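If I may wish for something, please sit down with the protein I am sending here and say whether tokens and residues agree:
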Amino acid sequence: MSTVQTISGPIESAALGRTLSHEHLASGMGAMERVPGLYDEDAAVERTIEALKRAHDAGIRTVIDCTPVDLGRQVSVFERVAGQTPMQIVVATGVYRWVPLSYHGWDADYMAQYFLRELQDGIEGTPIRAGIIKLAWDMEYQLTDGGPRSPRVQMEKCARGAARAAKAAGVPITCHTRAADRVGVPLLDIFEEEGLDLRSVTIGHTNDSEDMDYVLGLAARGATVGLDRFFSAQDEYVAQKAGVALALVQAGYAEQTCLGHDAAAYSVNGGPADGGPRPFNPECWLLVPNVQVPWLLDHGAAEDDIDALLVRSVRATFEAAAAMAG
């Protein structure tokens, strides 16, 4: 057992319960709150509380918010929500897809110190501490022009900094990845070089891939496989997404597989053409418990497999990370 930091304070890892491994309360872009007409904090809080209530009613007990500052993280939303929901919420430090220019001159050790401040001291002067590190490797990883300032070099530097911070603080790393490019492989290579226990690493959005050699290969290396894209209840879509989870269960990797949606209660990304947030979907975090889980049970998974996917897998990432810090 280990300690997990939430927005309401530390809890024991055994208390996590059923967990959605990759979600967002409020998201958009850094400083979105300073752009007139773009962001409405009261609406963000109201939407978040309602979506959390519905997820809690469906049996979810913990949500991991994977929103670093450059994806629009709003610590004020965390402060306002903390006392109004029984949901346990773990929030992230880290960096999103395009590494901000301000970070380009930093080395990996200073990146680690930057992450550690939010893990150990608090976020933006508040007592709320991050409990996980988020990285994002997407199509930008293909860009190699620019020498030390190329997107690839910067992303690799951030991954090394994240690994060093994770070891020092004893927290896991969760990764947004472009599964079509198999970028989980070079990420795991870096983490192995940095001495991480790969059980503490989640390679996310992996159910965007139907390449089961890639998917199973991540698990075979010891990593946690994040199947955290789930946006529709249409039969064909559910069969594809849930089918990846079932294959991992049948291969014996349920304990290394976690589930989520990558959905936001409030987001300005992909909003209407005249600005503002996307339409509110209060059921944004219900497809996993209400659609994917029944599909899995109907297709041969056992209740113990569901507990492995939603409870034990995520708990193990925190415990493996804590063990690295001694």
In short: The chain has a mean pLDDT of 97. The chain has one domain: 3-324.
